[in-house]
Amino acid sequence: MPLLVGDKMQKLVLFARNYGIAVITLLLFVLLAATTDGFATERNFRNILDQQSTVLIAASFMTIAIIAGNFDVSVSAVFVTAPLFALTVENATGSVTLAVLVGIIVGLAMGAFNGLVVTRFKVNSFIGTLATSFMFFGAGYLISDRSLMRPAGDIYQQIARTRYFGITSATWIAIIVVIIAALLLSRTRFGRNVFATGGNQEAARLAGVNVSRVQATTFILLGGAAALAGILNSSRSISAQPSDDFSFVFTVLTAVIVGGTSIAGGQGAIWRTITAAFFLAFLSNGFNLHQIDPIWQRLIQGMVILLAVGVDAWTQRRAG
Amino acid sequence: MADLTSQNKTLLTLSGVSKHFGGTQALVGVDISFERGKVHSLIGENGAGKSTLGKVLLGVHQPDAGEMMLDGEAIHLRNPAQGNDRGLVGISQELSLLQNRSVADNISLGREITRGPFVDAKKTRENVLATMERFNMHLDPDVHVGALPVAEQQKVEILRALSRDARLIVFDEPTARLASHQAEQLLELVRSLANSGAAIVYVSHFLDEVLKVSDTISILRNGKLIRTSDRKTETRDSLIVGVTGQEVQNQFPPLSPPDLQAPPVLSVRGISRAGEFEDISLDIRPGEILGLAGLVGSGRSEVAHAIYGASPLDKGQISFAGADLSKASVSDCLKNGMALVPESRRDQGLMLSRSLLENVSLPHLRQFSGVLGLNKKREYEEVDLRCKETRVKHEGLRHPVDMLSGGNQQKILFARAAVGQPKLLIADEPTRGVDVGAKRSIYDLIVNLANQGEAILLISSEIEEIMGLCHRVIVMSRGRISKELVQDNLTEQAVMNAAFSGG
Lengths: 320, 503
Ligand SMILES: Nc1ncnc2c1ncn2[C@@H]1O[C@H](COP(=O)(O)OP(=O)(O)OP(=O)(O)O)[C@@H](O)[C@H]1O
Ligand SMILES: [Mg+2]
Fold this sequence. Notes:
The structure holds two protein chains of two kinds. Chain A has 13 helices and two strands. Chain A has helices at about 5-35, 40-65, 75-95, 95-120, 125-145, 160, 170-185, 190-200, 200-205, 210-235, 245-260, 270-290, 295-320; strands at about 165, 165-170. Chain A starts with 6 loop residues before the first helix and ends with a helix. Mean pLDDT of chain A is about 90; it is low at about 1-5. By secondary structure, chain B is of the alpha/beta class. Chain B is built from 18 helices and 24 strands. The relative contact order of chain B is 0.11. The complex binds adenosine-5'-triphosphate and magnesium ion. Adenosine-5'-triphosphate binds near residues 21 and 403 of chain B.
């Protein structure tokens, strides 16, 4: 029997899954605004927005990939490597436009490679993108000759740091990308096909959905988004450096999972991912403002993830 | 098994049991009792509450109101494990086995005999074999469950229930996925389980089956118990009246003959696929209902999938409405005007966690897409219209389909096909798990479509359906066409003979 919990519990869990994150984020916001000096200030919010911009861009498209039924661990590698390509082009040609274009194309190409590995060779997406991660990291070392890279001119740093109406261009770009992703998922044929593919692959196929193409597309888009995030990040710090740093993908995944997107596929929403990203940002911002030891931050974050995954597992069992 | 001579025969009694899901009243004040040694059938329309009642008995659902007495003692089951512990077990509508484990593992799952911290594999296995012996149901204990045909998998599930000293066994539509001779065997088994003292709750839409196997029959309608009566006082007609609340009408709607001069809309020539089917040729004209009969596993669904572009051909040609579709994909076939209602709605038809709306419109999204993305209003109106036409009973188009009863889920697939206004509808076991009333409405749908000039390819294991609905029948056996039957040649006996012939 698939059902292991009572009916009341189920309802509660379902509600928690759909709206829990919004309620909790609102509560945290009110709590911090009431108790913490320096939280509810325009400056602080601008900072949070700016810091979160790269995560929001990647997390939106990660949500789409996970709804379609796949994981992508290689987001970190694209995030690290694409700006190295962009800066190589910038250093060589002086053209920032060309640099950004090449950086994003590299991201799209890496995404396409992931898509090929997962849909054509039927490799489990978690394992497949773990493997490609190392290839992409390797490409980063090769192109940068293992060294820190800086832009040659001073336009590159403007990409993320120009202010419009007091808000950084990185924030504006993130807002636009999130809106595009949300529209793509909720208002287009592609979005429906993503839900259908993650919901029941065989049924989607028999309903005429080209399942492989849909999944590959989610990888390609995510690759492009991760590259854009990486470029913004390098523009903000006016440098880029090859590394094997996986931390970015964990931040991104945390937002998606805490946002209640099912790791089994077929369910999720971008607004919830975005809300969760802000929840996590408020949490760490609050800790920082209170100058609490970051160790506690980790412990709490870990518990939040477990809670979110627990809710997911429960609802999955219900659907069983 | 329980001792029949001890105390009275009543095992489990429900009084005033109600259960609602959101706004749906699935059970309303139900009083019913189940006796040892008796087969007690539950019948009723789709969504009447049969499965819900079964699940309340097993502890899967908790009633909102009412009492449950087991052996004269009040019980409150909070989960199915508590039900299992008391010998209340279920054979579910959808099988729940571990496909990658052996038969013996599945049967003993959760009840392995242990010695210290370790599983005593030998004893556990002996236990399994003893259960098989006791009930005379023999299966190879070492094969993987996934490799077994459905009927055998079901036996594994039954053996699992039996290995727990079941006192009450709920069978929820156990024969819906079986061929007729397998169904016969299952009915015998159900009888023998009752004779050995278990209380059996038997849910089915096959009235003949119910009349054959039951001692007692209860009819549910909209969550209410309409009546419980002795099998001997019921007839097929009295049950139909009880289930539908209407006078008996003909089981099948009248057919009008297709235009025999019209050129075929679908022409299949010599198609083959290694290991599945060989050298299949057939034509269907507009307005014609062609039956594809044969045993389960004779290759009918595989042929249907190949025509529909879902699996590639090794050899042969398919031409459809003037186009060559021999190498077409599913989406090409859809675009050209085909539709498929697949055999298994849960595995091949529906995204259970998604809404009715999304499920119905999925193959036809192009129709609602413009430069600005989906036109959701137009989509909603179209889906709403089609759901009304096919009389899907639902609480809202945005609710997930897994909350609908089985028959309504099936109707959703017809609503989906209707959105595309297809020229050819392939319906693979379209009335599986569907109640008498809804069956008739699905038959009406099919016949209406044919009258409007659509070609229908109907795959069915129910011989009455084939006889009652089809203009012409092709019988398959072991991947080949063994006979084509029309008019005077088309008799039940001829279909059966052809199905069992070597091919
Ligand atoms: N878990 C659930 N959540 C919400 N509604 C449910 C749930 N289970 C059943 N229902 C609703 O309760 C009603 C009774 O459903 P039930 O499954 O008991 O019908 P049934 O008689 O078994 O029908 P069928 O013959 O189609 O299997 C239906 O309207 C159904 O939609
Ligand atoms: Mg049911």
